[in-house]
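Could someone model beta-D-glucopyranose with this protein?
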Amino acid sequence: MKKLLALAVAGCMALSLAACGGSTASSAPAASSEAASSAAESAAESVAESTAAGGKIGVCIYKFDDAFMTTYRNALQEILEGKGYEVTVVDGNNDQNKQNEQINTFITQGVDALIINPVMTSAADQIISTVKDADVPTVLINREPTADQMSAYEKLVYVGCDAAQSGTMQGELILDTENKGDINGDGKVSYIMIQGDPENIDAQLRTEYSVKALTDAGVEVEQLDLQRGDWDRNKGQEIAQNDLAKFGDQIEVVFCNNDDMAIGALQAIQAAGRTVNSDIYLVGVDALDAALNEVEAGNMTGTVLNDAKGQASQAVECMEELLGGKTFAAGEQSVYVDYVKVTPDNVAEFK
Ligand code: BGC
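Reply:
Sure, complex below.
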């Protein structure tokens, strides 16, 4: 099943507007194999080239203690090491000053390329000007700056997903239920929203578009509460626990901007004696293993695959293109991997 998924992902990536690895993108390896005089020689040469891809790569992660970014960074490390790069992955501990120092250290050490998951989206200008001054090709991941900010440096790409799409899919998961989320039949869907770090565009757009999917479908909504859970399981649990105590049966839908907070919310829902898919709905984003298990068991209404492995391989592809000398024009510096809706019907494909 994983293979099927990989194919689906490859298909989706091919559809992405500025996907790396397209026909214009593979000039470096192609040139060397053309020079070989026989097929055997050329095969040997390309193997040597890929194992000795070499080069020092610095990877900055906003904090290691994030469930989704843990899967993502492990995938990045595996892919990069598998290709023969010397990789160092560092933990920003959710501290932008610390990450700035890490970026400077990598630059001083002479890395060939950087992959950076910024701590603060608002630090993008500073990060971009630092890597530009040092002339280090850079792939930003997970926290998307504006196209305008990225246009300052042509050896810079962002790899991520279109956050609005994941929000829309969360709303659709609710619309797909038998009562479209209106469990008590009072003509409106009453929900709580457990938000990620609101500085992050993923949190902003998931919050907006999940609800918009309902209102666009003509469904009336009532927001009982919106609170920041900072992507964190414990905070998700606390917020849901307080809201369940305060609003009780009024809550029909719990929207969580990510799965880790949804798993926390599920603990509170179960402790309050409520039953998902019967008297309350619960949706997340990421398709963490724990969430896939809960979707399968009927304890979460659904989730949305945030394809960490697909994004990691896309990030490495883009990095290799930058190393091969490719530059990215303004307005074409964002590369998106598609989200996928996960329900009990298709969850087995993702496990
Ligand atoms: C993921 C969250 C994660 C966040 C980190 C989001 O795309 O859905 O789980 O905590 O990225 O920036």
